[in-house]
Specification:
Number of strands: 11
Shape: globular
Strand content: 25-35%
Oligomer: single chain
């Protein structure tokens, strides 16, 4: 598969996940220029995104929506070969976070140490455990209601070590690909090799689900792990928010 197709698949999986979870709350909106979603009492997904490169004429409507929906972030895909981010810098936006979109061809399983246990979230009790754990790893909340209403479309998993929950991840399948999202380990259990072990389990599971490629968006913290596992970089995502006055 060409990189161009993988780039499109990566964006479609990510935005498809946002759209899926937001639709169940009637929180997904679309016009001719952009799409956005804002779920109350949750720090995620709460994004506004475009399918084309950002231009000056797009900004008044974007700014209006972002001002009236606090907490929205605008992902800027670095795929158009332009410097559209300079427009955002000039119009009162600032970078909240940055990620690297990556992909891996799924053609070989990994050997596991089998020192972790994995449990798919299928009830409200586990959804609460997952939702309580997630902010410890990522610093923002995904409400338990999102898990309860979307556990059929999105696979949410808890990770246990010695019967204690230590981590999370979620899988979202689109076409023949798997999007891997929310892979996190609580701070006190880091630097023990658990994140890489979780990823190996996830990739093996993705192969069992007949996926061709694994797709993800890596933070600076996770990028080295994914590179060691064979992931290749596709493009950069800069997540912008409006500057606070």
């Amino acid at each position: 598969m060409k990189n161009r197709d993988l780039i499109e698949d990566n964006i479609n999986n990510l935005t498809g996940l946002w759209k899926t979870v937001a639709t169940t709350f009637l929180s997904y909106h679309k016009n001719n220029t952009f799409e956005y979603c804002k779920i109350e009492n949750s720090g995620w997904p709460n994004k506004l995104w475009l399918r084309h490169d950002i231009t000056k004429k797009d900004l008044p409507d974007i700014i209006k929506i972002m001002q009236s929906n606090s907490g929205l972030a605008l992902p800027c895909w670095d795929i158009f070969g332009t410097k559209s981010y300079e427009i955002l810098d000039a119009y009162g936006f600032e970078i909240k976070s940055q990620q690297v979109a990556m992909a891996l061809k799924l053609d070989q399983k990994f050997t596991l140490q089998n020192n972790l246990e994995y449990k798919r979230v299928l009830n409200s009790e586990d959804a609460k455990i997952w939702s309580d754990l997630y902010p410890n790893a990522f610093g923002y909340v995904i409400s338990k209601e999102i898990l309860i209403h979307n556990h059929n479309e999105v696979q949410f998993y808890l990770v246990y070590h010695e019967n204690q929950p230590i981590g999370t991840f979620m899988l979202f399948q689109s076409n023949n690909n798997i999007g891997i999202h929310g892979v996190g380990v609580i701070p006190e259990m880091r630097r023990k090799g658990f994140a890489e072990e979780i990823m190996k389990f996830v990739l093996n599971l993705s192969i069992d689900l007949k996926a061709d490629y694994a797709l993800l968006q890596a933070s600076a913290m996770g990028k080295d792990i994914y590179t060691r596992l064979g992931f290749k970089e596709l493009f950069t995502i800069k997540n912008y928010i409006l500057k606070t006055v």
